[in-house]
Design brief:
Layout lengths: L6 E7 L2 E6 L4 E3 L5 E6 L31 H9 L13 E10 L2 E8 L5 H6 L3 E9 H15 L7 H7 L7 H16 L9 E2 L5 E2 L1 H4 L9 E3 L7 E10 L2 E6 L2 E6 L8 E3 L7 E2 L3 E3 L12
Parallel strand pairs: 10-13
Antiparallel strand pairs: 1-2, 2-3, 4-11, 4-14, 5-6, 5-7, 7-8, 7-9, 10-16, 11-12, 11-15, 12-13
Length: 293
C-alpha cells in the first residue's frame, strides 16, 4: 500500500519555495522538477484545524476551500490573527510595504520585520518596496491612512494576480514604476505616526525568484482536487502559493492551498504529464518512493 502524505502548505524559505508535509518533511521546488501525485480513491478532505490543534469534530471541508478549515476552526484561527487586529500588544517591529502584482494592481500591507521578504513572496508580489517600519499599531494606522488617502487596497484576489502574470512588463524598471510613484506620494502625506520611521524607495523584483521569465501563458487553474484524481507535470514557475505546471504540453496553475486536508499518494505515470482534476479555463482555448515527488 502506497505511503500517504498530508500537505501542510507551501513555504518561501531563503533558498526558494518548499512544500511542507505533516511530520516536518520538506520537498524543494526547483524549476524543472517533476511534480506527480494523486488523491486517494474514496478520500475526503479533512479540516486542518487551527493554531496547531486538530479539528475537534473531524469536519469535512469543500474541495474548493482555500483555507481548508471548517467554520469553527476558521473563526478560531482568525481570532488570533494580526490581520484581524486581534493581537494589538504584539511587541515585534513591523514593516509597511507597497506590493505590485501587475499593471494597475498595487496593494498596501504590513508584515513582521523578522519575516523579511517571506510574506511578499507568499502573496506572489512581483515587486515591492518598504514604506516604513515601527510598532504594530503605528504600522496599522499608516496602512489605513494610505488606503484612505491613495485609494490603495489591502487585498487583491489571487485569481486577479494569476490573470495578469502573462502580460507583465519586460524590465524591472517598468515593473517598479507604479510603486515608485505611489511611494513618493505616500511618504509626502502628512499625518504619519511619529513612531513609524519612513523607509526610502528600493524596489525588490521577484520575477527571477518566481521563475516567471519566459514561462508560457497558463491556460487555466485547478479549481479543486477530487478523490481519485491525479496531476503529473514539470514545474515551470512558482509564485506565491501557485505552481505553474507543464502537463502534457499545456500550462496549468495549481494553488497548493487546495492540497491541504487531502491524503495524497505518489503516482508513477509517464513523464508526458497529465491531469484529471477539474480545471477552470482562463480562456478558450510501482517502486517504493521516499518522497511524494
Amino acid at each position: 500500500m502506497a505511503q500517504v502524505w498530508k500537505c501542510s502548505g507551501l513555504r518561501w524559505a531563503g533558498g526558494g519555495p518548499v512544500l511542507v508535509w505533516s511530520g516536518g518533511r520538506r520537498s524543494g521546488l526547483e524549476r524543472g522538477k517533476w511534480v506527480s501525485f494523486g488523491v486517494t480513491e474514496g478520500g475526503v478532505r479533512a479540516c486542518v484545524g487551527a493554531r496547531g490543534h486538530v479539528c475537534p469534530v473531524g469536519a469535512v471541508v469543500a474541495g474548493r476551500s482555500i483555507g481548508a478549515r471548517c467554520e469553527e476552526c476558521a473563526r478560531l484561527d482568525r481570532a488570533h490573527s494580526v490581520a484581524a487586529d486581534a493581537v494589538p500588544d504584539d511587541p515585534r517591529a513591523y514593516h509597511v510595504y507597497l506590493a505590485w502584482f501587475g499593471p494597475g494592481m498595487v496593494k498596501v500591507g504590513i508584515t513582521a520585520v523578522e519575516r523579511g521578504e517571506a510574506r511578499l513572496r507568499e502573496q506572489g508580489a512581483v515587486c515591492f518596496s518598504w514604506l516604513g517600519v515601527g510598532p504594530l499599531m503605528a504600522a496599522r494606522r499608516a496602512e489605513e491612512m494610505l488606503r484612505a488617502a491613495l485609494r490603495v487596497p489591502d487585498r487583491i484576489p489571487y485569481a486577479a494576480k494569476r490573470a495578469v502574470r502573462a502580460g507583465l512588463p519586460g524590465t524591472e524598471a517598468e515593473r517598479a514604476a507604479e510603486i515608485a510613484e505611489l511611494h513618493g506620494r505616500a511618504t509626502a502625506l502628512a499625518g504619519w505616526p511619529e513612531s513609524l520611521a519612513r523607509k526610502p524607495f528600493r524596489a525588490v523584483d521577484h520575477v527571477r525568484v518566481f521563475g516567471l521569465e519566459g514561462v508560457p501563458d497558463a491556460v487555466g487553474e485547478v479549481s479543486e482536487l477530487v478523490a481519485g484524481g491525479v496531476v503529473s507535470g514539470a514545474l515551470l514557475a512558482a509564485a506565491g502559493p501557485d505552481l505553474h505546471l507543464d502537463v502534457g504540453g499545456r500550462v496549468v496553475v495549481l494553488d497548493t492551498r487546495l492540497m491541504r486536508g487531502w491524503e495524497l499518494v505518489p503516482t508513477h505515470g509517464s513523464h508526458g504529464g497529465g491531469l484529471s482534476f477539474p480545471v477552470r479555463e482562463f480562456r478558450e482555448a510501482g517502486a517504493s518512493q521516499d518522497g511524494l515527488f
